[in-house]
Amino acid sequence: MIISILSFLTILNLVSSQQLIDLNTFTGGNLKNDIIAHAPYDVFVSAQSDDSDLLMQILLVTEDKKNISFFELTNRKPFLTTSQIEPFHVGTTAYVTTNLTGDQMKNLTGVMFISTTKQLQVNNFHVIDVDKVQNLYLPDENQTILFLNSNMDMSRTTTISNFNQTSNSSIFFYQGIPTDDDEKINSFIFSNPVLVQNKSVFIPNVEKFSLNLKAFYVKYYGKVAFGVAPDNYDPNNSTTTAMITTGLVMKPIGQKDKITRIGTMRNDTLDGKVGANLIGSLPPSGHVVVGIPNVESEIMVPTDQIQSHTNNEVGIDFQVSSVNATDGEYFVQYYVIRE
Asked: What's the sign of the alpha-carbon dihedral 148, 231, 84, 105?
């Protein structure tokens, strides 16, 4: 009886939650793949690296027979300057079917996002496909934007650049997809204002950084602008571009341990500090080292909530490295404050 209750609760949670489904998990051979979701809901598809001819042969079929191919779903982008995806609305039930073989389906790399009823009832949620260079000028509102990246040529990497933000605004980047529940406190991978010694400090300059994720989302409040591109940026051996600045170093799963060195813009007449906010997940023997080499560094083990370290001086450079972290991932938001 307990097992039955647990199984029911698991199914109920799945039905009522947002879902990110890899297209290669659907079965081919003209079988029906039922979408297990609480209607009504919206569907969004990103499949940048999948062949158009294959996508044309995969259908989403609704109960009222509003059939649409996955090729059409990936091209529901009505705007010229951004790749915001127009949602496809499902009012009751739907399933996915295709005449492709199982092997053909297993080679797909795209994703499908399914919203919840609650999410589609608000007008401040949007989905953007990272399929080209886009400059986003976000209105002075409170919004949530989900970014999907299925570009396998760049290993699903998104570069964030040209950040511009008013001092009374705030933005938070999160890994994965948004849900109807509030995020765990201090579970963001990047933010501005930045958490500095347990205080929120607005940083006027943001360095270019990359995220190697198939899905991430931002929640912002106020006026913010930045660019996104399906491209990779390695911050190693870069130099910060302002006296007060922040950036991000990410190590994705599968990448071997390495040292990332970031030089700091020099002005020895100003006092300052550098610091890091770490979040992630590593194997039991893994750890991350952050700080000023040969001066002061901290050994840290990331969790699903931010851990912080601050050096009360600014060296020539700032370094991030890891040990036994190949099978894990971590995000280090660093900051430099000279004033």
From this structure: negative
